[in-house]
Design brief:
Layout lengths: L10 E6 L5 E6 L14 E4 L6 E6 L1 H6 L3 E6 L4 E6 L4 E5 L6 E8 L4 E8 L2
Antiparallel strand pairs: 1-2, 3-4, 4-7, 5-6, 5-8, 8-9
């Protein structure tokens, strides 16, 4: 018998914040032990960015201490990988070339991906 793997569907939504930065959030169909889905409790600001961006977590998600992230370029190479330890986490991308990147934020129970754009 074949084993069926569960699928995670992610929908990206783009809107404007008061500071005229593009705020990127996502919605997913799973929640973690806090009862807050990782997708709804995560914000990426600004996007597009020139040198750095911020990963903002809901307070309850930040307290978990098990939220991690990976930034990959479009060739699939891991550029950065670390643990998110606070509500506001800054990722410096000064050494990376302008272009598109994929940010994956994840816990043991779920993951959500965001498209990032680094400008000049």
């Amino acid at each position: 018998m074949k084993k069926l793997l569960p699928l995670l569907f992610v929908c990206l939504v783009v809107g404007k914040t008061q500071a005229q930065s593009t705020e990127l959030s996502a919605s997913a169909m799973f929640t973690n032990s806090t009862g807050i889905s990782l997708a709804k409790g995560t914000k990426i600001l600004p996007n597009p960015f020139s040198s750095h961006f911020s990963i903002q977590l809901d307070e309850q998600l930040a307290r978990l201490g098990t939220v991690k992230y990976t930034v990959m370029d479009y060739q699939g190479r891991v550029v950065y990988e670390n643990r998110l330890v606070a509500e506001n986490n800054v990722v410096e991308m000064n050494q990376q070339i302008p272009g598109a990147y994929i940010l994956t934020v994840y816990t043991a129970e779920e993951q959500v991906a965001f498209k990032l754009l680094k400008t000049q």
